[in-house]
Design a protein that fits this description.
This protein has 760 residues and is an alpha+beta fold. The chain folds into 6 domains: 76 residues, no CATH class; 146 residues, no CATH class; 44 residues, no CATH class; 48 residues, Laminin, CATH 2.10.25; 127 residues, Phosphorylase Kinase, domain 1 (2-Layer Sandwich); 238 residues, Transferase(Phosphotransferase) domain 1 (Transferase(Phosphotransferase), domain 1), CATH 1.10.510.10. The protein has 18 helices and 38 strands.
């Protein structure tokens, strides 16, 4: 019994000695390919604190935190341990049923050893991979997450986790040692199964994760083989530095090191080498002096001075005959033997130089102040204060939207508005192609403000002019609308500048230009077959439906036309020009306003009543659909033949189609063409309550795209034209009267001229 007590006492002394000097000499330095840095260790006497005890197990051997299943990938003395990420997943087969590998081990919970470890909120992000996917990180009743959606692999970009195939979000502030991960799918990946079959959700070190579109098609096993890592913060014990220092035997910080409590944990302590030292602060003499003299980038000695290394720093003694501290940012080295003249000349030169610098600085400050005053006057003139107020009413601000651009940035982007960068001119102003500081190509539009008689007038005269105010109001409406919405088929506003003589808008750039040019320019018309035209119509309808029903406040566009629909490289429709748009309160269905728009696209009922409604956009969309079908100009008059809409409706009544369709359209799609024609007829109804909603139009266009055909027995006796007409009647409402029933001459209105440039 006495012998056993002696042995136990010996082990205690050995452990205390090991703690005091660092660790035992026979402790393992690595496990697999991971280096083990003290204060971490494997086994008694090899670690500083029990929470830093590790274990090496498995074949091949892997390093783990104590007896847990958290596999260690890397240890950093700066306060982090990289462990293998826990990945939660859901995978499906082609029919939308859970795949076999979804039943494999799936550990959605992350629970670290309490008190001494915490999930790093600064280094990690919740990441979700998949094209029909959603993921959350949960702590009690609180949860946050992100969604990732894409309907085509072409929309997914490598290295980008902005929501197309991959999304990322910062971790919540209260997250510490425990969290639960969740992964789900909106449609069980049935619509994207060909290229994305699983949803993966995990917490990962953001700077070490580089997304690749190839991840979308990986199986659970293949995704786990990526060996992703999550950073966790660690600390020694729960005592503060002040308390820990009192126990000199167990205190971990050795010579030339300092103790600090990590902010992320708020408890325990860590050590770091003092300035001028580097190494491991947890082992005796682990913090070694840095030799600043061996590398000229580490010292600040002048050429005359000689660098002398010292513990924790260095000195720059001057050679014999010189005084000073020898440092470039200090006194330098000055000779004892300089004559009075030699001493005076540098002083005079310094004084003259200082005077020149000061005078130059004062002149530049004066110019800068005058420029700032002028820019502020332009800012007020161009409605900057009113814009800020309107954004504030919508729960935003100029600061949060980050849309303001400086005049210097736009000059740089356009090579000082070089003529070679002009891509469009018109009554609206001039559009330049520019390259922003972040590398994006943008369309930079300098607005032409008001009537020509305003040119050269003073600011006060301009701001008091009614024509000028109308243009400013349209400019503000466009900025407010585009700053508060986000949709794939609405052009993105990248910024605006109000500190120039005329305000500037910065949009996404689309080299294909607008739909008007592609329909009416015979050299371009052949690029858009019927399938492409149908896709453009559907995209436009989705944008208008979003504005009407899905935006936080309903928006009426007010000027839907083919010139206001831009096309990207894939011919995806992008609706633009919101200067005539209006926000609609939830309890209102219409607005009384001065009639404005583009001849040929205006709603007849709007012309008569001056009441702008969502159905006004539906009518204009119907005109665009007729343009796509016929290839004819909407606002043209042909002698006594009347308008395009009148000719189109008359041709439908006389069964003159399909001969009336554009010659560039393949007539093999006759059934689809007739369905689209009758949908256009419904949109062109004179009575607004007989027009379909944009959501109903999307449904019909989608059915046309998919070739859906639902004909009841009563329609089998009809000819193809009558059959299509009956189908449209059933889907979106009764037949419509001719627009010629109304007399637009009774209403006073303002027409815009059609623009054939790339941007409105």
């Amino acid at each position: 019994m006495g012998f056993q007590l002696i042995m136990l006492f010996g082990k205690i002394l050995a452990a205390m000695a090991a703690t005091a000097i660092g660790r035992r000499q026979d402790c393992p330095d690595s496990c697999g390919n991971v280096s083990i840095l003290y204060p971490f260790g494997i086994g008694e006497g090899c670690y500083n604190h029990k929470s830093l005890n590790l274990s090496c197990r498995g074949t091949p051997p892997s390093l783990y935190i104590n007896t847990t299943n958290f596999r260690v990938i890397n240890i950093s003395l700066e306060g982090q341990v990289s462990i293998q990420s826990r990945i939660v997943h859901v995978c499906y087969d082609k029919s939308g049923m859970p795949a076999l590998d979804s039943k494999a081990t799936n550990t959605p919970t992350v629970q670290l050893p309490k008190n001494n470890y915490a999930i790093s909120r600064s280094l990690n992000k919740l990441t979700v991979v998949g094209c029909d996917s959603s993921g959350t990180v949960q702590l009690g009743e609180y949860a946050t997450g992100c969604t990732s959606k894409c309907d085509n692999i072409r929309h997914v970009a490598n290295g980008n986790c902005s929501g197309f195939g991959c999304c990322q979000i910062s971790l919540p502030p209260d997250l510490t040692y425990y969290t639960r991960l969740n992964a789900s799918s909106f449609n069980n990946h049935t619509k994207v199964w060909k290229f994305s079959r699983c949803t993966f959700a995990f917490v990962v070190e953001a700077d070490k994760f580089n997304f690749s579109k190839h991840y979308l098609n990986k199986t659970r096993k293949e995704f786990l083989e990526l060996n992703l890592s999550m950073a966790i913060d660690w600390t020694i014990g729960n005592e503060t530095c002040q308390i820990a220092k009192n126990n000199k035997i167990s205190f971990a910080c050795k010579e030339n090191s300092e103790c600090y409590t990590p902010e992320s944990l708020g408890r325990g302590y860590r050590c770091e080498c003092k300035a001028g030292y580097q190494g491991n602060p947890y082992i005796p003499n682990g913090c070694e002096d840095i030799d600043e003299c061996s590398n000229k980038d580490l010292n600040n000695c002048t050429n005359l001075a000689k660098c002398e290394n010292k513990n924790g720093g260095y000195a720059c003694p001057c050679p014999k005959g010189y005084d000073g501290d020898g440092k470039k940012d200090g006194e330098g080295c000055t000779s004892h033997h300089e004559s009075p003249v030699i001493k005076i000349v540098p002083s005079v030169a310094i004084i003259v130089t200082v005077l020149l610098i000061c005078s130059t600085w004062l002149y530049l400050e004066y110019k800068k102040r005058k420029l700032a005053e002028l820019q502020h006057k332009f800012y007020v003139q161009n409605g900057g204060e009113l814009l800020g107020k309107k954004l504030q009413e919508r729960g935003a601000s100029l600061e949060t939207t980050r849309i303001l651009k400086k005049p210097e940035e736009l000059k740089k982007a356009t090579d000082n508005y070089d003529k070679s960068r002009v891509v469009g001119r018109g009554g609206f102003g001039t559009v330049y192609r520019g390259t922003l500081d972040d590398g994006r190509t943008a369309a930079i539009k300098i607005s032409k403000m008001g009537h020509p008689r305003l040119e050269g007038q003073f600011i006060v005269e301009k701001t008091q002019n009614e024509d000028y105010q109308k243009v400013i109001n349209q400019f503000i409406v466009e900025v407010v609308v585009l700053s508060t919405i986000n949709h794939r088929n609405v052009v993105k506003l990248l910024g605006c500048c109000l500190e120039t003589q005329d305000p500037v808008l910065v949009y996404e750039f689309f080299s294909k230009g607008n739909l008007f040019n592609h329909i009416h320019d015979k050299s371009l018309r052949s690029e858009i077959n019927w399938e492409t035209r149908l896709m453009i119509a559907t995209g436009t309808a989705k944008a208008l439906s979003y504005l009407h029903s899905e935006a936080s406040d309903s928006i009426i566009h007010g000027d839907v036309k083919s010139a206001n629909i831009l096309l990207d490289d894939d011919f995806t429709a992008k609706v633009i020009d919101f200067g005539s748009s209006r926000f609609v309160a939830p309890d209102l269905n219409q607005l009384v306003t001065t009639v404005q728009g583009t001849q040929g696209y205006l709603d007849p009922e709007y012309l008569q009543t001056q009441q702008l409604t969502k159905e006004s956009d539906v009518y204009s969309f119907g005109v665009v659909l007729v343009e796509l079908l016929t290839g004819k100009v909407a606002n043209s008059f042909k002698g006594n033949e009347g308008t395009l809409v009148g000719d189109f409706l008359s041709s439908l009544e006389k069964n003159l189609f399909p001969n009336g369709f554009d010659e560039y359209i393949n007539k093999e799609n006759e059934e689809q063409l007739m369905k689209a024609a009758y949908l256009a007829k419904k949109c062109l109804s004179v009575k607004k309550n007989e027009r379909p909603t944009m959501a109903a139009a999307i449904t019909k266009l989608t059915e046309i795209q998919n070739g859906k055909r639902e004909i009841d027995a009563s329609t089998h006796e009809l000819n193809p034209v009558e059959t299509v007409s009956r189908e449209i009647e059933n889907d979106v409402g009764p037949s419509m009267p001719s627009p010629q029933e109304l007399n637009p001459e009774e209403t006073e209105y303002v027409f815009d001229n059609e623009s054939t440039t790339s941007y409105p």
